[in-house]
């Protein structure tokens, strides 16, 4: 009859292996990574394998935003109860500490992967919230806020690195847009809720409550990233270069930026000189932490990093001075200021959602340019709001318009930074973005404050001083719009 071929099973296995390898090659050519237990190759846009991690990342980022923003209304009450009102500006050093946290988290993520710095950042966040809630002096409160900023920087960079390493290109913009929204949404609900808790109960309950809320998401995200499939995807090649020089520079920059709070809180010549010296030191030391060519706006990652600092500096300065203008010069009630912050939070989240869902086909550098131009329009509105005849709501609307621009600007820059980052150096790129974001906020605010206080010192009215401080912000907006094309992805 029929003779059985002894080599048939081997041939069939060989044929099946060739077919399977061909399928993998086709998926690789389409930009689809195949990870057993992490991603199914059936549908390139399928996001189900990432839902658990995305949910944990979103919860962690949301609570990090609450720690940064929700406690702000409670800080004046805490300073008053601790007899430290004169030192109240020093308690707002969260941003300065985030700079060091971003550098530390980025170096750590490049050496061993993002799991460990993320876990360490979450543990530090819980501990520092407990310390802040149980403090007995304003200096302890300052230390708690500084360490909380350190933890926040580590967490943000680690999450961005994990998304850059594990998520496919189709899902990455939406995931980053969600992270951006989770950072902004706390500014919508956090301050009023924290203010009510502080008024009806105690400001300490705000810190202690946030510590309790952070424990469960922290454990969940660590458990998800410890799964074998995620551990294999997030494994980073060991980076044997010693991080000490960069970390020492980051520590110096962070401390100098924190002390710079003194310079922007006074009007005397000594305060102005201190602020100018602080700005110079920050620029000199920060060069060691940024990609080569950042100050020259070199194409690729350097200009992307520079653009991040310009945009965040403009928005943060508007957010600082518009409420001050409304209170001191226009006599606006607190409700108007609260509505301005709420409107800005909604506008940022909505704009971020639109650019991730509806404008995903647009080149990212064009969205960056559009965001910079929208911010320039917001600056013009803010300057108009300083005119005595202008309605009170004019200046308040500037924050909302600027938030619309940042919703397009910030997520697009994050996508470009991950695209331009060298292989195995996603943590470095995320760290550089976090560094310039914090530097932009501190230095642009410092320069605007020097101009504002100088105008007051020569006898200008408050309206003119505010107009000068706002008008200065047009320079970084226009510069960002002109440089956006240099950040174009290949």
Describe this structure as you would to a colleague.
The protein folds into two domains: 46-241, MFS general substrate transporter like domains (Growth Hormone, Chain: A); 247-490, MFS general substrate transporter like domains (Growth Hormone, Chain: A). It is 75% helix and 0% strand. The protein has 19 helices and no strands. The longest helix is centred in the last third of the chain and has 32 residues, at 426-457. The protein is globular, with a radius of gyration of 24 Å.
Give structural attributes.
19 helices, Growth Hormone, Chain: A, mainly alpha, single chain, 490 residues
Quick summary:
InterPro entries: MFS (IPR011701), MFS_dom (IPR020846), MFS_trans_sf (IPR036259). The protein has 490 residues and is mainly α.
Topology:
Layout: H1 8-29, H2 51-69, H3 75-81, H4 94-112, H5 115-133, H6 138-166, H7 172-184, H8 186-200, H9 203-225, H10 228-233, H11 244-263, H12 269-286, H13 301-328, H14 334-357, H15 364-385, H16 392-420, H17 426-457, H18 462-472, H19 474-483
Helix pairs in contact: 2-6, 2-7, 2-8, 2-9, 4-5, 4-6, 4-11, 4-17, 5-6, 5-9, 6-17, 7-14, 7-16, 8-9, 8-14, 11-12, 12-17, 13-14, 13-15, 13-16, 13-17, 13-18, 13-19, 14-16, 15-16, 15-18, 15-19, 16-17, 17-18
Subcellular location: Cell membrane
GO molecular function: transmembrane transporter activity
Organism: Streptomyces spectabilis
- Second-tier CATH architecture of the largest domain: Up-down Bundle
Oligomeric category: single chain
Number of helices: 19
In percent terms, what proportion of residues is strand?
under 5%
CATH superfamily of the largest domain: MFS general substrate transporter like domains
Which class of secondary structure composition applies to the elements?
mainly alpha
State the order of secondary-structure elements, H for helix, E for strand. HHHHHHHHHHHHHHHHHHH
């Amino acid at each position: 009859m029929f003779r059985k071929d002894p080599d048939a099973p081997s041939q069939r296995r060989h044929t099946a292996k060739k077919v399977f390898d061909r399928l993998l090659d086709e998926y690789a050519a389409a930009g689809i990574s195949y990870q057993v237990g992490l991603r199914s190759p059936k549908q390139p846009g399928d996001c189900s394998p990432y839902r658990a991690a995305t949910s944990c990342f979103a919860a962690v980022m949301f609570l990090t935003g609450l720690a940064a923003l929700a406690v702000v209304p409670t800080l004046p009450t805490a300073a008053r109860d601790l007899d430290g009102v004169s030192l109240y500006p020093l308690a707002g050093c969260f941003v300065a500490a985030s700079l060091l946290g971003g550098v530390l988290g980025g170096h750590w993520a490049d050496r061993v992967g993002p799991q460990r710095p993320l876990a360490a950042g979450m543990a530090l966040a819980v501990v520092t919230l407990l310390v802040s809630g149980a403090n007995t002096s304003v200096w302890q409160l300052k230390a708690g806020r500084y360490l909380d900023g350190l933890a926040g920087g580590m967490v943000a960079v680690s999450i961005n690195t994990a998304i850059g390493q594990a998520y496919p290109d189709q899902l990455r913009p939406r995931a980053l847009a969600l992270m951006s929204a989770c950072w902004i949404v706390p500014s919508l609900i956090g301050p009023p809720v924290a203010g009510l808790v502080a008024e009806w109960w105690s400001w300490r309950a705000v810190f202690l409550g946030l510590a309790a809320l952070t424990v469960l998401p922290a454990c969940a995200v660590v458990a998800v990233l410890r799964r074998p499939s995620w551990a294999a995807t997030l494994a980073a090649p060991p980076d044997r270069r010693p991080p000490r020089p960069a970390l020492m520079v980051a520590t110096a920059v962070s401390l100098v930026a924190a002390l710079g709070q003194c310079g922007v809180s006074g009007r005397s010549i000594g305060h102005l000189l201190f602020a100018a010296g602080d700005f110079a030191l920050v620029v000199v030391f920060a060069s060691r932490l940024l990609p080569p060519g950042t100050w020259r706006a070199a194409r690729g990652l350097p200009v992307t990093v520079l653009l991040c600092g310009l945009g965040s500096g403009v928005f943060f300065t508007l957010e600082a001075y518009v409420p001050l203008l409304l209170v001191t010069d226009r006599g606006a009630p607190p409700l108007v200021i609260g509505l301005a912050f709420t409107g800005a939070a909604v506008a940022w989240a909505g704009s971020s959602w639109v650019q991730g869902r509806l404008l995903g086909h647009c080149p990212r550098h064009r969205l960056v340019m559009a965001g910079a131009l929208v911010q320039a329009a917001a600056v013009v509105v803010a300057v108009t709001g300083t005119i005595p005849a202008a309605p009170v709501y004019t200046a308040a609307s500037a924050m909302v318009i600027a938030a619309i621009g940042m919703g397009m600007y910030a997520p697009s820059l994050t996508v470009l930074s991950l695209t331009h980052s060298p292989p195995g150096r996603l943590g470095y790129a995320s760290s550089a973005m976090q560094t310039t974001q914090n530097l932009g906020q501190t230095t642009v605010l410092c320069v605007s404050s020097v101009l504002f206080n100088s105008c007051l010192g020569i006898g200008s009215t408050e309206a003119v001083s505010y107009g000068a401080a706002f008008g200065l912000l047009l320079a970084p907006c226009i510069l960002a719009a002109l440089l956006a094309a240099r950040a174009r992805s290949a």
